[in-house]
């Protein structure tokens, strides 16, 4: 399995766990609670990625650029999470205040 695929699967698993199971149970429709829990999930994702690729010298192909593990994981997480967040917010009638 390629390093990109490893991190892509990690990101998908973390977002699925968060938005599919954890946030509905513990945050509901609270934007603040979802945001705090999501920061925690993002941190865990980056921590796992760092354990796998920190100081390894592996370069990741992200669209047209070569990036390190941090930027690949972070950018992939953000790109996948944005539409999932809006779907979650609409489904749970999230208030943004």
What class, by secondary structure content? mainly alpha
Percentage of residues in DSSP E strands: 5-15%
Radius of gyration: 14 Å
Main beta-sheet annotation: 2 strands, antiparallel
Number of strands: 2
What helical percentage do the residues reach? over 70%
Transmembrane segments: 6-24, 69-89
Keywords: Membrane, Transmembrane, Transmembrane helix
Description:
The protein has 97 residues and is mostly helical. Helix content is 72%, strand content 6%. It has helices at 3-26, 31-53, 69-91; strands spanning 60-62, 65-67. Strands 1-2 form a two-stranded antiparallel sheet. A hairpin with a 2-residue loop joins β1 (60-62) and β2. α2 (31-53) runs antiparallel to α3.
Keywords for this entry:
mainly alpha; 6% strand; two-stranded antiparallel ribbon; 97 residues; elongated
Quick description:
The protein has a two-stranded antiparallel ribbon with strand order 1-2. It has 3 helices and 2 strands; from the N terminus they run ααββα. It has helices at residues 3-26, 31-53, 69-91, and strands at residues 60-62, 65-67.
Question: What's the layout of helices and strands?
Answer:
Blueprint (H helix, E strand, L loop, with lengths): L2 H24 L4 H23 L6 E3 L2 E3 L1 H23 L6
Keywords: Membrane, Transmembrane, Transmembrane helix
């Amino acid at each position: 399995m390629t390093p990109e695929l490893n991190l892509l699967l990690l990101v998908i698993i973390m977002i699925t766990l968060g938005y599919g199971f954890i946030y509905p149970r513990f945050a509901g429709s609270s934007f603040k609670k979802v945001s705090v829990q999501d920061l925690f999930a993002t941190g865990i994702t980056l921590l796992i990625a760092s354990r796998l690729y920190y100081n390894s010298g592996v370069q990741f192909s992200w669209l047209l650029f070569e990036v390190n593990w941090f930027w690949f994981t972070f950018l992939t997480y953000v790109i996948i999470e944005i539409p999932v967040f809006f779907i979650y917010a609409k489904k749970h009638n999230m208030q943004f205040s």
